[in-house]
């Protein structure tokens, strides 16, 4: 999983990215699509994907987790 500070940094990174890019209207559109069992709108999907790419870039720099012996 990672150290407490790494997990905290991950959560902060994720929250900050959402705070910068996600609007109240996006949230409403997300819930409307979910409630009506429709596909998520493309613009929302792109915002989510953009956030995931940013998180991967940030956290790919962390050292690898040691493997457990079997």
Annotation keywords:
mainly alpha; 70 residues; 3 helices
What overall form do the CA principal axes indicate? elongated
**Which percent range fits the helix content?**
55-70%
Order of helices and strands: HHH
Low-confidence stretches: none
Strand content: under 5%
E-strand count: 0
Quickly give the structural class: mainly alpha
Oligomer: single chain
Would you tell me the overall average pLDDT? Answer: 77
State the separation between the terminal residues, measured CA to CA.
18 Å
Major sheet details:
none
Number of helices: 3
Count up the domains.
1
Q: Over the alpha carbons, how many angstroms does the gyration radius reach?
A: 16 Å
How would you describe what is shown here?
The protein has helices at residues 4-21, 24-35, 42-59. The relative contact order is 0.15. The mean pLDDT is 77. Helices cover 69% and strands 0% of the residues. The protein is elongated, with a radius of gyration of 16 Å. The chain is an all-alpha fold and 70 residues long.
